[in-house]
Design a protein that fits this description.
Order of helices and strands: HHEHHEEEEHHEHHEEHHEE
Strand content: 5-15%
Strand order of the largest sheet: 2-5-7-8
Largest sheet: 4 strands, antiparallel
Shape: elongated
Oligomer: single chain
């Protein structure tokens, strides 16, 4: 017997030694080859993506940009898999209540079968070839409430994944809208500097005409040319900002960076009069993080029930049937036969070294922790809503002041140009007036941008940039109407008092 098993043990030992003796150099070489193959695969995937991924051209509205982002944004698509993971956990949770059925087949070869002699007759006890098929059914009957708690926890986890998706959807909408507004601001500032360049060139022509008639100096011409160059340099800078902002927008939408898009919307200022109490009510009813914190408290309550269930006995029903050759009922009969047994088992842990008490204590502390986090999330929601409201009100005041300032600067340039043509104003006054107008226009567009973004942040703080809780809509079915500017006198679609 030892001679037979020795080669087998030697073979197993040599296999284990050879598997663990790879040199450091061979491992490094193997990893490098894997990385090279990964780069080759990346090149192939890049070429295939350029053929299959979305590329956009032409005019692009904000609502269309958000719709594309909802379908194409990679981070959002990754988060959507949380729903599938949660569905798998729900299916898995039913295992705690359903019966377990196990089947096992065995063949065993004996060195020799036992036997004994009765006179001249030799009676065998079994056979050298042994076969058996074992079927076991195991049904949990009582777990001290743990089964129901596990099922409820799985349902809560599914709701929690829905809120995670809703939060990711709102984040995607916010980032896409913000990127769109960034691109709009860059475009408007580019147009401001473009107008300034054209205005400076017209003024340069006036100066050149005056020099021909001897009423302007070379210094005046030089100063006018410097103005044209300065405004043109700023225009080129803003054009680069437009290109960068569009690239970030394409990235947020999850489309190829080859699209030549034209922003179809404009930065618009619509006064709003939101009310803190109303905004907070909307936030409490819609913010995904508040729902997540609430669901975590409920999940922890179920976890505490599972821990406390260990104080109760575990009752299970079982049934087992065995088919075997030789006969399991008679070891002297070398035929197939079966035997079965059934019953109930009760298992109660009397003392487990304080492990059970420690687990219950941990779950109690974790429950208290989740309640504190819920309270903190509510305070954070209040802070974010209040900050968004204050920022919105300040942005509104800023817009109103810059609107008037832009009008004044425009009138100042007109008067300076008229005065220069009449010989009353100097070249320096015209240049200063044009710079002041360019600055005033830029500040006006920045103020409108600040108001639009503040409104967007208020919508995000109230949790209304996406589907409402429990709507049951998939992200691809959602029409992002809330991203569009609310009508005057309303706060994100809610009537103001």
């Amino acid at each position: 017997m030892r001679v037979r098993i020795l080669p087998f043990l030697v073979a197993v030992l040599m296999t284990g030694i050879s598997a663990g003796c790879a040199s450091r150099e061979s491992l490094v070489r193997d990893v490098r080859e894997t990385r090279t193959a990964a780069y080759t695969q990346w090149l192939k995937m890049r070429q295939s993506k350029e053929r299959t991924e979305v590329s956009i051209q032409g005019k692009l509205h904000l609502a269309d940009a958000v719709k594309l982002a909802i379908r194409q944004n990679k981070e959002l698509q990754a988060t959507l898999q949380e729903k599938e993971i949660a569905r798998g956990k729900v299916i898995e949770s039913y295992q705690a209540a359903l019966p377990k059925i196990n089947a096992k087949g065995t063949y065993r070869r004996l060195d020799e079968a036992g036997s004994f002699d009765v006179g001249d007759v030799s009676i065998s006890l079994g056979d050298v070839d042994n076969y058996s098929v074992d079927l076991t059914v195991f049904q949990p009957v009582f777990r001290g409430g743990a089964i129901g708690a596990a099922l409820r926890a799985a349902k809560l986890a599914e709701l929690l994944s829905d809120e995670a998706v809703r939060a990711a959807l709102q984040k995607t909408i916010y980032q896409t809208a913000l990127a769109y507004y960034d691109a709009l601001l860059a475009k408007d500032k580019y147009e401001v500097n473009k107008d300034a360049v054209n205005s400076a060139r017209v003024h340069l022509k006036d100066v050149l005409t005056k020099r021909k008639h001897g009423v302007a100096s070379d210094y005046d011409v030089l100063r006018a040319e410097v103005d044209v160059s300065n405004f043109r340099a700023e225009m080129i800078k803003q054009k680069n900002n437009v290109d960068l902002a569009k690239s970030r927008l394409l990235k947020a939408m999850g489309v190829l960076q080859k699209g030549d898009i034209e922003l179809a919307d404009e930065l618009e200022y619509w006064p709003m009069k939101p009310v803190l109490e109303e905004a907070l009510k909307i936030a409490h009813e819609n913010r995904p993080d508040l729902y997540q914190a609430e669901l975590n408290v409920r999940l922890q309550k179920e976890a505490l029930k599972v821990a406390r269930s260990e104080y109760w006995p575990k009752i299970d029903a079982f049934f087992e049937e065995l088919w075997a050759k030789p006969d399991p009922k008679s070891i002297t009969t070398n035929e197939w036969n079966d035997t079965w047994n059934a019953g109930l088992s009760v298992n109660l842990s009397i003392f487990d070294g304080l492990g059970r008490e420690g687990r219950v204590h941990q779950q109690k502390a974790t429950l208290a922790q989740s309640r504190y986090r819920l309270a903190n999330t509510q305070e954070q929601a209040f802070l974010e809503v209040r900050q968004a409201l204050l920022t919105l009100r300040n942005a509104e005041e800023f817009v109103e002041s810059q609107k008037l300032n832009r009008e004044r600067a425009s009138e100042g340039l007109r008067l300076a140009q008229v005065g220069y043509r009449q010989g009353i104003a100097s070249q320096v006054e015209v240049s200063d007036a044009r710079s002041a107008l360019t600055t005033a226009k830029g500040l006006y567009y920045e103020s409108v941008y600040g108001h639009v973004v503040s409104r967007l942040r208020l919508q995000l703080a109230m949790g209304i940039l996406g589907p409402r809780p429990g709507e049951g809509k998939e992200p691809g079915e959602y029409v992002p109407e809330d991203v569009l500017a609310p009508k005057p006198g309303a706060v994100a679609g809610q009537p103001a008092h």
